Amino acid sequence: MTTVIEEPQAELQESVEESQGWLVFEYAPVSLFSLKSSRATSTAGKTLLTPTPYAVKMAFLDAALRHGLTKDPEGLVRWLAKATLRIGVPRHACVTGTIQRVRQEARAPGEASPYRTTIAMREFVHYSGILRLAFDLKTCADDFIALLLEAAPSINYLGKRGSFVQYIHGARRTDLGAGFTEPADEARAPQAGQRMFLDDFGTKASFSALNTFLQTELRRGMDRRFVDTIVPLIVYSSGPAFVHYAAKE
Q: In angstroms, rounded to a whole number, what is the distance separating the alpha carbons of residues 94 and 34?
């Protein structure tokens, strides 16, 4: 049985430094979610059902930099790369497909406008339930835990800008129950769900490579890696232009 220990933020800092288990942050989704797989190149790419570890860690990195919580972004990226992260998906996720008019960069140089109008398929996810982010304390240094506790309340979107969430609280868990993502090759038992490749920080990730304002080449497998992951949601129902996923009872 999973034990949940909820404590005030200051007391939570002391307890996590003395224990093993998981540090879990809970968020309430307050808008539609959308995040196309980083491996997709088509404008018709489908959305993932959950934020990826890469997107979550980038959110913590962004919050830490915006609020001046670190003076060593390279060190923070190394901490994030070492941290094991699991995503607790909401109990229900309904995916709706739409066709939108978008603008893309012109293909040929010298065109009248630097952008051209086209259409693209977009998918959006409506969540019902709580989204949870779980960090394995065994993979987190004490200073890193303190930074996570400071940065977590400042995160207000995950995935694409506009996929807003609202921070609820942090809690320490002795272990994770059902409802959290798990790498397919580390699954302790067969688990029903959707298999997806979710990106994460690579073992050699660096701030210079992840910084979009620099021209450093992002190395696949080193700066960013893709993990075959089981997302614990099964198809509940479907119809024209929508699929309803739910957690297995």
A: 11
- Would you say 224 and 212 are in contact if contact means Cβ atoms under 8 Å apart? no
For the chain, the structural domain boundaries read 4-90+126-238
> Cα(130)–Cα(238) distance, rounded to whole angstroms?
22
* E runs forming strands in the chain: 4-6, 22-29, 85-88, 92-105, 115-128, 131-136, 165-173, 182-183, 194-201, 224-231, 234-239, 242-246
When pLDDT is cut at 50, 70 and 90, the band that residue 2 belongs to is very low
Strands 242-246 and 234-239 turn out to be antiparallel
Within 8 A by CB and 6+ apart from 66, the residues are 154
**pLDDT (tens digit per residue) in 89-137:** 999 999 998 888 888 777 777 677 778 788 888 899 999 999 999 999 9
The DSSP bridge partners found for residue 36 are: 47
pLDDT band at 7 (very low <50, low <70, confident <90, very high): low
pLDDT of residue 79: 96
Contacts of 86 (CB under 8 A, 6+ apart): 22, 134, 136, 176, 180, 181, 182
Instruction: Give the separation between CA 229 and CA 191, rounded to whole angstroms.
Output: 11
What's the CATH architecture for 4-90+126-238? 2-Layer Sandwich (3.30)
